[in-house]
Design brief:
The complex is a heterodimer of chains A (302) and B (361). Chain A has 302 residues and is mainly alpha-helical. Chain A has helices at 3-37, 58-67, 71-78, 80-113, 116-127, 134-145, 150-158, 171-195, 199-207, 212-223, 225-240, 244-249, 257-267, 271-301; strands spanning 40-41, 48-49. Chain A is built from 14 helices and two strands; from the N terminus they run αββααααααααααααα. Chain B has a six-stranded mixed sheet with strand order 6-7-8-3-9-10, sandwiched between helices. A five-stranded antiparallel sheet of chain B has the order 13-12-11-14-20. In chain B, a hairpin with a 4-residue loop joins β12 and β13 (265-269).
Chain lengths: 302, 361
Amino acid sequence: MSARPLLAGLRRLVLAAPAVWLLLFFLAPLALVLKIALSTPAIAQPPYEPRFDIADGLVVLWEKVQGLSFDTFALVISDELYLSAYLSSLRLAAIATLVTLCVAFPLAHAMTRAPRHWRSALILLAIAPFWTSFLIRIYAWIMLLKDEGLINKVLLTLGFISSPFHIFPSDGAVLIGIVYSYLPFMILPLYTALEKQDPALIEAAGDLGATPLSAFWCITVPLARPGIFAGLLLVFIPAVGEFVIPDLLGGSDTLMIGRTLWSEFFDNRDWPTASSVAILLLALLIAPIMIYERQQMKETAQ
Amino acid sequence: MGKGAPLLRLEGVSKCYGATVAVDALSLDIPHNEFFALLGPSGCGKTSLMRLIAGFETPDKGRVFLDGLDITDLPPHLRPVNMMFQSYALFPHMSVAKNIAFGLRQEGRTRKEIFARVEDMLRLVQLPGLGDRRPDQLSGGQRQRVALGRALVKRPKLLLLDEPLAALDRKLRHETQFELMQAQRETGTSFVVVTHDQDEAMVMAHRMAVMRAGQIVQIGSPREIYEEPTSRHVAGFVGETNFFEGRVIQYMPGGVVLETSKGLRLESFCRDHPVIGTRVTISVRPENMRLSAPGILSSNGGIGEIVDHVFREGMSSFRIRLETGDIVHLRQNQGEGVLSFDRGMRVFVSFAPEHARALVR
C-alpha cells in the first residue's frame, strides 16, 4: 500500500530533474546575461551598474531596478555595424551550412551503402577529428591554406598554378573552416535517416521506371528530410555565433557577430552591449528552431 | 521472333555470388498469359532468378529475352517488367494513389490519364475510395493490394511476384490466392510467382518449376508434378508422401519389384529401367494408401499399429508404425469405411502398384 505513493513521488522527482537542470544551468545564466544587458557600463569591477546586493533594502533594490534600461538594445538595433555583422554572420553560416549538406549527403549515403561490418568503423572515422583539439585543427588549416602553405606549395610544384592563390585569411577560409569543423554534425543525422530507408524502395522506384536520379529525388531525399533538417540546424546555429574560426581564419574584413561580441566584451569592456548582442543573437536563432519544431509536428501529424 | 514465341526466354543463365552459385546455367521459356510459379526452399536461387529477370542483377553468363528482344543488359527502369516486392516496398511518404501513379508519372503520362488509370486500378484491386490513405494507415492485406496495383498499373508484359502472400495470415492468404488468379486472368499479363510454399504454387499456377541448387529439377503443371515426380526431392518437396527404400529384385510389367532392407516386398510403377540390384525409392501419396484388417489382404504392404488418428477438413489422417519400424501416413475420406479403425488397432497397410512411383534419383 505504501509503496505506491512512494513510487509516484520518486517518479515526480525523476521528472523534475531535467527541469531543475534547465533552471540552474540555462535559465539562471540567461537571466544574469539579460540583467547585464539592461545595465549601464561603468568604470568599475565588474564594469557595469547597478549591482544588486543582498544588503540593500527593498527600497534601494526597487530604485536599482528602475535604473535598468533597454538603451543597449536600442543601440545595437540602430547601429549599422551590428546589423551588418548579424547579416554577414547569417549569410556566411547559411552558405557554409548548404556546402556542408552537399558534402555530407554523398558521404552519409555511401556509408549506408557500405558493407554492414564496415559501417561502425566509418562512423568512427567521421567523428575521429573530435579526438584532436578543435583549436589545433583550425590552426592546422592555417598551415594548409596560407600563401606559403602546403596546398599552395603542392599546386605550385606540380605546375597547376604560377603564383600562390590567396585564400587565407578571408571569408573563403572561414567557410572552409566551418564546413570542415561541422561536417560530422551533418553526417550523423543524415546517416541515421538514410540508414533506416529500405533499399527495396529504390529498387521499386527503378522497377517502376524511375531513373536513378529521379529515384534519388523522389524517394531518398524526401525520406531523409528529418535528418536533413536536424543536420541543417546542428550546423547553422553554432556556425552563426562561431568565434574561433572567423578569428583565426578570417580576414580583417570578415565580419561575424561572434567576433563583434568578443571585441565588445574584452576590447571595449562594454559588458551590457556585449550581453544584448548575445541576447539578440539568441532570439534570432530561436526562429529556425521554431520552424523546425513546426515541421516536426506536421510530419508526426500526417 | 514471330507469334507463338515465348514471352520470356532464359538461355543458359548463370549467376554467382563469390563462391556460391545462385543460378546455374538455367534455361526457361514462359509463354504469354501464363501463371507460372517458381517453387523451392530458401537458398535455391529462385529469388536471384527473379532479380535477374527484373534487371536488379546481371547474369554472369547467358541471355534474357523478352518478346524476342535481348534485355540482358537493360537496366530495370527500361524493362517492361514490373515486380511486386515481398516487403511490398510501398513509398511511405506518398498516398496510395500517388504510389500507384508513380510508375505512370515516370512515363510522363498526362494528369488526366494518370487519374483515370489510378481510379481503374483502385477498383481492380478492390480499394476504391482509399486513394488518399497513407500506406501505414492500411491493413496488411490492403497494402498487398496497393503493391499489386502499383505494379500492374503500368501494364507490364510480365509481372514478378516475390513471395506475394508470405506476409498475410492464413485466411487472408487463401482469399488473396484467388484474387491474384483473377487479376492475372483479367489483365492477361503473365505472372511469375516466387514461393517456398507448395500449396500456393499448386493452387495458383498453370505451370510450375521446382528449383534446387540453382537449377530447375522439374517443370510441369501442378498435377503432373504431384502425380509424376521425377525425383525423390520433388516427390518430398511437393505434397506429403511416404517413402520406401530398397533394391530392385525383379521386373514386372510397367514397373519393378523391390525388397526393402527390412524385408518388405513391394511392387511399384516405374518410368525408368533400373538394373536388378539398383537402390530405388518408392513414393506413395498418403491418399493412395489403403487400410484393411490384417489377414484379408496380404500383398504390397505391411502390418502395423495405428499410433495416431486425426480428423481434419473432412479427412481422416492416420499415422501407422509398421512392424519394420517405418512410419506411414495415410489419408482417407470419411465414409470410405475407415471409421471402424482407430488408435492402437493392428492393421494391414497397402497400396496399388499403379499408385506408387519408384524413383531412381
